[in-house]
Amino acid sequence: MSENKPIKSAGTSAQEIIEWGMAHEIETCFDRAEKLKPCPIGETGACCRVCHMGPCRLVGKNAEEEARGVCGATLSTVVSRNFLRMIAAGTSAHSDHSRDMANTLLHVATGQTKDFQIKDVKKLYKVAGILEIEFEGRPVNDVAKDVAETFLQDFGRQNGELNYCKRAPEKTQERWKKYGITPRGIDREVVETMHRTAVGVDHDPDHLLTQGLRTALADGWGGCMISTDISDILFGTPSPIKAEASFGIFKEDEVNMVVHGHEPTLAEAIVEVGSSDEMLQYAKSQGAKGINIGGMCCTANEVLMRHGIPTAGGFTNQELGIMTGMIDALSVDVQCIMPAITEVAKKFHTKIITTSPKAMIQGAIHIEHDEHHPNKTAEEILKLACDNFKNRTKTGSHITKKSPLIGGFSDEYISYMLGGRWRASYRPLNDAIQSGRIRGVVGLAGCDNPRVPATGIHKYLVNELIKNDVLIVSTGCGSAACATEGYLVPEMALENAGPGLREVCEAVGIPPILHLGACVDNSRILTIATNMALEGGLSDEIAGMPAVGIAPEWMSEKAIAIGCYFAASGVPVIFGGESPVGASKEVTKIMTEVWMERYMGALHFEPDPEKILAMALDYIDGARESLKLRKYEPGKFGAERVLMDMAARREIKGAAHAGVGGINESEDK
Ligand code: XCC
To answer: What pLDDT digit, counting tens, does each position of 478-487 carry?
Structure first.
């Protein structure tokens, strides 16, 4: 990396490729972010586009009191309507993905899709139990069919409650009922939100935002949770697995096939068909030694968690991956796929393949995912990748660095690893929090963003939080940001964690950052928080826990939906960047003070990373005080361990190398 070049990504390998790209005049999102400044009116939510009398830009010194759209809409109405539409879009994305998963489960159960089977019957029975579906003594596929059909009803449910609302602690459910935010059907909430935000309907900001929370809850306890559970049922509930991350995952002598997007379905088929003898022979016939499958964004997280498939990283790494010159085919499904990848790919040999009937990109090859015959689609894509291997040239930035990681922490596994096989439990975690060994828990999630040195705020917060004895659970591109820099290994606890957290990580044998999966797997955090509440000794609802959610580099509307479902569930949430409701003090106050009063959750926007850290620690310490837990004292649990440090360091490193599967030293620091 050269000294005088501007830092655009905090990922060391990413920055190298960016610089290579600049030298070769290849434009990326980093260049476009620099050229295209955000519109200051739209950025803070003050531009109304819901009818064609406008767009009305409600700006000026006294906009809050005086500005009106042509119809008379106030700034707070406009800002909250815009925000609600972000929630609706985010909820739609997760939930449409989830609907596809429910349909796949149904097709597998009825035999229309024969390429997949129910992999985790135990999880199927657990889910059936929650849904009050009889499972004992019944054929597995009959149970699966009932589960799929019950889930599908949750999308179109007109009245009553979403099935999974009852999974939340009772007190959490009571709060939802008290304030009228218990979600009905997922589609119904999204449609009502779109209706209420159309011109001339709902104009009261608090009333609007209340519907926003109801929609977001339909996302969290509906779309996301359903998707997570069905993926586990079909493809297996994750347990810790080693993998690798960054651009060095690509292999010189093998076909590099990359899966990108969000849905696990076709990617699972690609992983399976890609490891078949037949396909290996085909690759060899094209001059390659094998087939190397890698991932990007959340499809990567799905196959990483279950198969140890390596990841090239998160959102801002997608163009850079192509610029290595190593990818023979990149297949994409839905969400977070930059249309720019086909432009970048023109300069290399990489074939871009769109696969979803919902998503096409100009300049890409479209091979549509046949949901009844996924292996057939996978075969076609893999053959195309193999055929393209011979076209690979020397052009590209050819990065070789990669980092080891351990991912695959489901709530089921966390409970098992804390309590053991016969007494799986959250007791040890709650005890560690009560005693102050662990100060609190932060869910660090969300995108990486080219408007800041990408992944940089994730890296800063991870280091500071674990130093402060805060356990981190991470998902999505937040996990990828940690993975590519070598942070997702147990050694991280020894090197950087505070002494209390370190003791717990050493005792249990876990890294201080637990990679829980894709964006939809934020639902695993809801389950973890629920389990902590049910275990006792902390709060008896999700609200009031020494826990905070942070999305420091968010960019997607999906992140907004996620932030809101955590706030409505009782978690204070802090997002980075400029506030999309920043134009209205009234809306900002509702989302912080009013939501805190009602739900003990809030959604803040704070661009300064140091302030994000301070706010998070304040929330955690405040919750500890309210719960009358022992005051957190930095260093309290570490003093007697200083002399043992060297020995422990040697032991754990040895264990990680041998026991967890021969993890290599990170080369990417
Ligand atoms: Fe997309 Fe899930 Fe954001 Fe990453 S983290 S940029 S939403 S891929 Ni969800």
So the answer is: 999 999 999 9
H-run or E-run covering 575: strand 572-575
Nearest atom within ligand 1 for CA of residue 522: 9
Q: What is the pLDDT of residues 317-342, one digit of tens each?
A: 999 999 999 999 999 999 999 999 99
Burial grade of 658 (CB within 10 A; 0-12, 13-18, 19 or more) = exposed
Give the span between the Cα atoms of 99 and 105, in whole angstroms. 10
Nearest-CA residue for ligand 1 atom 8 is: 297
What is the SS3 assignment for 454?
strand
Grade residue 635 by pLDDT with cuts at 50, 70 and 90: confident
For residue 603, the cross-strand partners are 573
Q: Which amino acid residue places its CA nearest to atom 9 of ligand 1?
A: 519
Tell me which DSSP letter residue 56 carries.
E
Q: At what angle do helices 277-285 and 374-389 cross, to 10 degrees?
A: 20
Over residues 457-468, the mean pLDDT reads 97
**What percentage of the chain exceeds 90 in pLDDT?**
89
For atom 6 of ligand 1, the residue with the nearest CA is: 447
Q: How far is the CA of 469 from the centre of ligand 1 (A)?
A: 27
Pocket test for ligand 1, best of 29, 228, 297 (most atoms within 8 A of CB): 297
Chain segment 79-123, per-residue pLDDT in tens = 999 999 999 999 999 999 999 999 999 999 999 999 999 999 999
Q: H or E stretch including 354?
A: strand 351-354
Contact 574, 615 (CB under 8 A): yes
Nearest to 483, CA basis, from 554, 553, 403, 551? 403
Tell me which residue has tokens 């850290």: 613
Q: What is the DSSP string of 238-272?
A: ---EEEEESGGGS-TTSEEEEEEES-HHHHHHHHH
Residue nearest to atom 1 of ligand 1 (CA): 336
| pLDDT score of 644 | 52
CA–centroid distance, residue 343 to ligand 1 (Å): 21
Residues 6+ apart with CB under 8 A from 342: 352, 361, 362, 363, 364
Q: How far is the CA of 278 from the centre of ligand 1 (A)?
A: 34
How open is the CA angle 233-239-243, to the nearest 5 degrees? 115
Is the pLDDT at 668 greater than 50, yes or no? no
Atom of ligand 1 lying closest to residue 297 CA: 8
